[in-house]
Amino acid sequence: xxxxxxxxxxxxxxxxxxxxxxxxxxxxxxxxxxxxxxxxxxxxxxxxxxxxxxxxxxxxxxxxxxxxxxxxxxxxxxxxxxxxxxxxxxxxxxxxxxxxxxxxxxxxxxxxxxxxxxxxxxxxxxxxxxxxxxxxxxxxxxxxxxxxxxxxxxxxxxxxxxxxxxxxxxxxxxxxxxxxxxxxxxxxxxxxxxxxxxxxxxxxxxxxxxxxxxxxxxxxxxxxxxxxxxxxxxxxxxxxxxxxxxxxxxxxxxxxxxxxxxxxxxxxxxxxxxxxxxxxxxxxxxxxxxxxxxxxxxxxxxxxxxxxxxxxxxxxxxxxxxxxxxxxxxxxxxxxxxxxxxxxxxxxxxxxxxxxxxxxxxxxxxxxxxxxxxxxxxxxxxxxxxxxxxxxxxxxxxxxxxxxxxx
Length: 407
Known about the structure:
The chain has about 400 residues and is mainly beta. It is built from two helices and 32 strands. A hairpin with a 3-residue loop joins strand 2 (about 30-35) and strand 3. The longest helix is centred in the first third of the chain and has 8 residues, at about 60-65. The model is unreliable at about 1-70 (pLDDT under 50).
């Protein structure tokens, strides 16, 4: 049985999306089609700009079109803008971007919708819109293989979807945070993160992080098979499974290594719980875990207070990087062993050389917080950003595409 927000969708019109190219052209081609009995409303739209390199001097053209200066790199006095962008990609914050195969990306948002964007043939498909409101936020996304992905919502549903938009399964997780957990009632069932072992070609198990609990979902049986209490109050914010037996888990501000058995697990503390600092209005909870490319067992650990650490499981050492972001870091992206990108509440993306422990470039002037980063290949990446005043702003969340070689 599908949850109400997926089984009882209506055919209300989709919001007006704009895909802007550098000539100011906007092309919309909406069609409606029935997708079996699962998702009655799927829209398609044609993009007008493929992901080619930017023209020699695109800034003046873009300024004249929008009246707003686009995001730019600040590096040795130069400016480089995005290759192209998807304006009004969602009505509210984008909580995740993932890659699906070689030609598609998926975005999930607080507006309760998931959209599958096909970059190469310039089209997209949409799941939704479903019910609006706090309960139906899309709170997490995870790639499972080239043809399948999973998303979680604030009301505790884990949903498996294929690349055509068909919902293969949807099940509410089995645990609800207790009344003494300290979290708001509307967050008691919230799925914070979903992850699968990277060593599996087609993972059988998914790890799901929630307030107080880590749950394990069996894709073959299409059910939750195990629930583990992680803390009496703290949330499981991020999970990085190396295999079915070894899983790194972020619980509040503490980083832990869980060694999984059939019926029990042991826990080693990698980074102890941090104390509240007066320099930031946020408690230093962990927001994101990012494995570094070409460095097995080494990861970036991002925090609410604007800092991040590089932790090596082999040497059991950590290095702290500070003084770049003024707000919560939401996402990290590793290009190689020494090049890392971070995005944050402060409307900024920073590019770091980890050998020098400092930023070597910044992208500034986004419309609002930069909530997601996604690597597309060795040179291209995408960002997601949304204005802070999204309810009054004419412009909503957008996805931008960049070329690292232009930094």
